[in-house]
């Protein structure tokens, strides 16, 4: 019996849940994007380890230089590993705009950098070099694999907060064929990006969302925070409105949910992203809109609404 038939029978008898099994090209892309993301995250951890070792040695380079792995910072670190400990000599390795901070650099580079620190920093720098090369190689292979889906990648890149890497990762997780998900809500539920539902004794309570695709959730969380920093976007307004009442985590997930809904519609229709604007909620809550809503609520409560040239007259509901 073929694997597909066997899985179909298991699903039919309720022994396993139906799942989204993408075609081979998407599975290949998924393998590459997931491994690249793990390498990028490992690189981030190594940079944090590097700064921790430098702090332990009394080297406060990160307090002066924005990027300790820039050209100037890397030259200083290489010199430290090779045995140069004179703060004045190290500070003179600064380039460009960092040279105006040479006095601060001399103070920041005056520490207790010893042989053990040199060994650990040297290994971290070598590992960072390897990770940079690995990420470049993986990105090159991803460019080859995603070529048939280049149009979909360009579509997603038009969304605020989504760059090329995030677009590739998202396509690797959900594919480009949205017919597998009848609606955007089905996709959001499958991804675990919508609130759970818990109903008992006729009462609805807040429930936990299903686990969903954790890799996709991580991509959407990064995209949501990037979109929230774009002050001219709808997503920034949505995040600002929710974060005050719900907190950062729930606001971030809500924006991620909105991004996923937009992605489903764009991949379904093939249309570019249409920006609603940062003032979308202000437009929706205009005085005229609020007035119409309040009048509608009064009408539902039994008040008599009469339109006259002077305005609208309100008559209270008659007593039963």
State the main characteristics:
two-stranded antiparallel sheet; mainly alpha; about 325 residues; 2 domains
Brief rundown of the structure:
This protein is mainly alpha-helical and 320 residues long.
Description:
The protein folds into two domains: 24-145; 149-195 and 212-269, no CATH class. α2 (24-56) packs antiparallel against α6 (115-145), α7 (150-157) crosses α8 and α11 packs antiparallel against α12 (248-269). The chain has 320 residues and is mainly alpha-helical. It has 14 helices and four strands. The relative contact order is 0.08. It has a two-stranded antiparallel ribbon with strand order 1-2. The protein has a two-stranded antiparallel ribbon with strand order 3-4. The model is unreliable at 14-18 (pLDDT under 50).
Judged by helices, strands and strand pairing, the structural class is mainly alpha
Tell me how many strands there are. Answer: 4
Strand order of the largest sheet: 1-2
Broad shape: extended
Residue windows where pLDDT falls under 50 for at least 5 positions: 14-18
How are the elements arranged and paired?
Blueprint lengths: L2 H10 L11 H33 L14 H12 L4 H5 L10 H7 L6 H31 L4 H8 L6 H11 L9 H8 L4 E5 L2 E5 L6 H15 L5 H13 L1 H22 L10 H5 L2 H14 L3 E5 L2 E5 L5
Antiparallel strand pairs: 1-2, 3-4
Helix pairs in contact: 2-6, 2-8, 3-6, 7-8, 8-10, 9-12, 10-12, 11-12
């Amino acid at each position: 019996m073929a694997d597909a038939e066997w899985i179909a029978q298991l699903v039919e008898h309720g022994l396993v849940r139906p799942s989204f099994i993408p075609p081979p090209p998407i599975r290949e892309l998924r393998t590459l994007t997931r491994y690249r993301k793990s390498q990028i995250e490992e690189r981030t951890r190594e940079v944090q380890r590097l700064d921790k070792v430098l702090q332990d040695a009394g080297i406060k380079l990160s307090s002066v230089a924005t990027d300790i792995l820039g050209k100037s910072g890397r030259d200083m670190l290489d010199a430290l590993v090779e045995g140069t400990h004179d703060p004045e000599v190290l500070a003179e390795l600064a380039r460009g705009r960092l040279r105006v901070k040479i006095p601060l650099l001399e103070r920041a580079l005056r520490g207790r950098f010893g042989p053990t620190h040199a060994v650990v920093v040297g290994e971290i720098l070598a590992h960072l070099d390897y990770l940079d090369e690995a990420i470049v190689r993986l990105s090159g292979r991803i460019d080859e694999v995603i070529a048939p889906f280049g149009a979909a990648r360009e579509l997603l890149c038009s969304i605020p907060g989504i760059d090329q890497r995030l677009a590739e990762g998202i396509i690797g997780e959900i594919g480009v064929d949205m017919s597998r998900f009848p609606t955007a809500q089905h996709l959001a539920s499958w991804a675990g990006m919508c609130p759970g539902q818990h109903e008992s004794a006729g009462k609805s309570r807040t429930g936990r969302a299903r686990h969903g695709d954790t890799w996709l959730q991580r991509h959407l969380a990064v995209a949501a925070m990037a979109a929230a920093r774009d002050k001219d976007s709808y997503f920034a307004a949505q995040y600002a409105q929710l974060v005050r009442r719900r907190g950062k985590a729930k606001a971030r997930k809500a924006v991620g949910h909105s991004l996923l809904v937009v992605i489903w519609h764009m991949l379904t229709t093939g249309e570019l992203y249409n920006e609603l604007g940062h003032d979308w909620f202000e437009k929706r809550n205009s005085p005229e809109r609020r007035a119409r809503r309040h009048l509608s609520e009064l009408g539902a409560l039994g008040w008599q609404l009469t339109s006259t040239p002077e305005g609208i007259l309100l008559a209270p509901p008659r007593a039963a």
